Amino acid sequence: MSEIQMSLDFDPPKARLTDPRTSKDAAKSVKTGTIRALILNQLSTNNLATFQIAEILDMYRDSISPHMKPLERLGLIRRSGQLVKNPKTGKNCEVWEKICT
After folding, report:
1. Are residues 96 and 50 in contact, defined by beta-carbon separation less than 8 angstroms?
2. Among 101, 100, 64, 94, CA closest to 79
3. Which helix H or strand E contains 78, and what residues bound it?
């Protein structure tokens, strides 16, 4: 049986026309496929909240969260219905799970 390989060719992040140049430069520098592959790798073993993924990958939560909705739209992840409290903020956060493909 052959193994199906998922493509990591994702649309690059985009800045709005009204965004400052720094935002446009930042959008061009993001390696979308790499970050999304790292997220999917973490979710393949555990259901996690965005802040937990960021901690594991030693990245900022703001570097992870913009990738969650596109991965959800692609049908690769979904919200599990669970909540976990972020100890730094005290707020409840949604837990994500990888959809088996």
Report:
1. yes
2. 94
3. strand 77-85
The whole-model pTM stands at 0.71
Hey, which CATH number is domain 30-98, 1.10.10.10, 3.30.365.10, 3.30.590.10, 1.25.40.10? 1.10.10.10
> What pLDDT, in 10s, does the model give residues 6-63?
445 555 556 667 878 876 666 665 555 788 999 999 999 999 999 999 999 999 999 8
* Phi, psi for 87 (deg, rounded to 5): -65, -25
Structure tokens at 101: 């493909």
d(CA 56, CA 99): 20
Handedness of CA 63, 66, 67, 68 (dihedral sign): positive
